[in-house]
Design a protein that fits this description.
Elements lengths: L1 H12 L16 E8 L10 E6 L5 E6 L5 E6 L2 E8 L6 E7 L8 E4 L12 E5 L5 E8 L3 E7 L2 E7 L7 E7 L3 E2 L3 H8 L11 E13 L2 E10 L2 E16 L6 E12 L18 E15 L10
Parallel strand pairs: 1-7
Antiparallel strand pairs: 1-4, 2-3, 2-5, 5-6, 8-11, 8-18, 9-10, 9-18, 10-13, 11-12, 12-14, 14-15, 15-16, 16-17, 17-18
Protein name: YceI family protein
Pfam family, one: YceI
Organism: Streptomyces griseoincarnatus
Length: 304
């Protein structure tokens, strides 16, 4: 009698995977689980797992591993592709078949170090304005976003023999801000925001490159805007070096992102809607999409 009761309880709680942990499942569903580990074989928390149906190519499950490197999902029966990614590591993909009322044993997924792209040769690299963009995104009225960019800037990179000692400098013409709306752009140039009459430039000077693995770097430096200087860190992805362009010059590319708090730079203008919602949000997402050309005596000057 006791044995029969125990069996009934187990059937109500659903299948039990190989780990011995009960996994409740909807009727007719199956379960997929995996344990993700880093190159040292240690559990990797925060890895992204995406499960895609192979017939429809639709995402059936998406999430991140827990602090123990585990991920679990209930899925309809079918064939799936599982992609596991983590910053600085090579993505892993495998196919699985899910059957009804069945929990597969946890799959062990070991992520390997990502292949490091060849770094640019030491020397001076100048931004190529037609192929470089400095963009920003700000929250508007608590729900929508305003997208903008700066259209006039100069900058360059001095690549040192030790990449960590390299330097980046950028000077942005603050008056070149544009969001596609003349009234809003004039307001952003006014004393309420950038006050371009008194602070015509936004400057960034790097202090250190910090390697994060794979193609990822953190670019630390000082940003000066609206008469105030603050330390910032740019999450940077190096995209590689290639011979190409309008005269086949050597060029490199990178994408750098950071989040700025307006009040850190005394950009304190506030206006509230009737419901207490700020017209402009407190943070701004900044993105630099850079192509730079290697500077030699024979390198053509980047066009305006």
């Amino acid at each position: 009698m006791a044995l029969g009761l125990l069996r009934r309880r187990r059937s109500r709680s659903g299948p039990t995977p190989a780990s011995g942990v009960p996994l409740p499942l909807p009727a007719g569903a199956g379960a997929y689980s995996c344990e993700v580990v880093d190159p040292m074989g240690q559990p990797l928390g925060g890895a992204e797992v995406t499960v895609t149906a192979r017939d429809s190519h639709r995402v059936a499950a998406h999430g991140t591993t827990d602090p123990y490197g585990l991920f679990m999902a209930a899925l309809p029966p079918g064939s799936y592709s599982v992609m596991v990614t983590a910053e600085g590591l090579t993505p892993a993909r495998n196919d699985v078949d899910i059957a009804a009322d069945t929990a597969l044993p946890p799959a062990r997924v070991a992520l390997l170090p990502a292949r490091q792209l060849e770094l640019p040769p030491p020397g001076t690299w100048l931004f190529d304005p037609p192929h470089t963009a400095i963009r920003f995104i700000a929250k508007h009225v608590g729900m929508a976003h305003v997208h903008g960019r700066f259209t006039r800037f100069t900058g360059g990179i001095r690549i040192a023999p030790d990449m960590r000692d390299s330097q980046v400098s950028v000077r942005i013409d603050a008056a070149s801000i544009t969001t596609g709306n003349r009234t809003r752009d004039n307001h952003l140039r006014s004393a309420d925001f950038l006050d371009v009459e008194h602070y015509p430039y936004i400057d960034f000077t790097s202090t250190r490159f910090v390697y994060q693995g794979g193609s990822k770097w953190t670019l630390n430096g000082t940003l000066t805007m609206h008469g105030t200087s603050r330390s910032v860190g740019l999450d940077t992805t190096y995209l590689g070096t290639v011979n190409g362009g309008y005269e086949q010059e050597l060029r490199c590319a990178a994408l750098a992102k950071t989040e700025l708090h307006r009040e850190d730079f005394t950009l304190n203008w506030r206006s509230m809607l009737a419901r207490g919602i700020a017209v402009v949000g407190p943070t701004v997402q900044l993105e630099l999409d850079v192509q730079a050309m290697y500077r030699t005596s024979e390198t053509p000057t980047p066009p305006e």
